[in-house]
Structures are given as structure tokens and as C-alpha cells.
Design goal:
By secondary structure, this protein is α+β, with helices and mostly antiparallel strands. Strands 1, 2, 3, 4 and 5 form a 5-stranded antiparallel sheet that branches. A hairpin with a 2-residue loop joins β3 and β4. The radius of gyration is 23 Å and the shape is elongated. It comes from Salipiger mangrovisoli. This is DUF1488 domain-containing protein.
Amino acid sequence: MTEMRTQIGEMRYNAAEEQFEALVTFHSDAGRVRLASTFKAPVTTPPEVAERVLMSRALGLLDREGTLQARTAPLPSERQRRPRDAAPRKEGFAWLSIFRAA
């Protein structure tokens, strides 16, 4: 099962449109997906409420066809690492014999 982390960028209030706006980033094993999210509400709305609504709306748009999304591959540091074998392979070290002293 894929685990997904969610991150919200800088949230701002657009007074002309009377809405909160933010860029929401979803991090998963497959990479990152960024979506723009909006929430029409008065400026007096608590920031925690606006943040939760922006994130839930972005999640609803995540798999919707026709949604503008920015996708990027995972960074090398974000990729899951496979566990290595506990016992070293014997044939893997044969090439070290060329470094033996005479």
C-alpha cells in the first residue's frame, strides 16, 4: 500500500476573489503531485479551518480527469531503499584478488 504525505504551501487570502488559496503537495512513492486549491470564505475564517478545507479539496481533485497538476519523479533521497542481503555473496568479491600484493 502506498503511503502519502501531504504538505501545504504558503496560504494566502485573495481579497479580490474573497477566497483562500494555496499550493498543496502530495508526496508518495511514485513522486510528488502539486495542485492549486481554493476555498471561498470570509477573511475572518480561522487559518486551521481554511488549511484543512484546502487540503481536502486538493485531495478530491487528485484523481479527477482534466485537473491541472504538476508531477515530478521522487528524488533519490525519497526513494524507498530495499534491504540488502544479510550474508555477502562469495562471487561478489572475486575481483578483489587483483589487488593482492606479490
